[in-house]
Amino acid sequence: YPSLARNQAAMSQESQTKAVDGHFGANRCRTRVNQIGVDTDVQALYAWIDDRAGSPKTARDFESQGRRLFWWALMRCPNPDSARRVGKALSDLTRSDLMAYRKYLKKPDSLAIGHKAPFLDRDGNRNPAWRPFEGPLKTAHIEHVFLVLKNLFRYLADVGYLDGNPLAGSRAREKASMGDHSKRTDEGADRELDTEQWLAVMRAIETLPQTNDAERYYYERALFMMQLFFHLGARIGEIASHQMGHFRTNKNGEWEWSVMGKGGRQAKIPVNNALLAALGRYRVYLELSPPLPTR
Question: Given this model, what pLDDT does residue 67 score?
Answer without folding.
Answer: 92
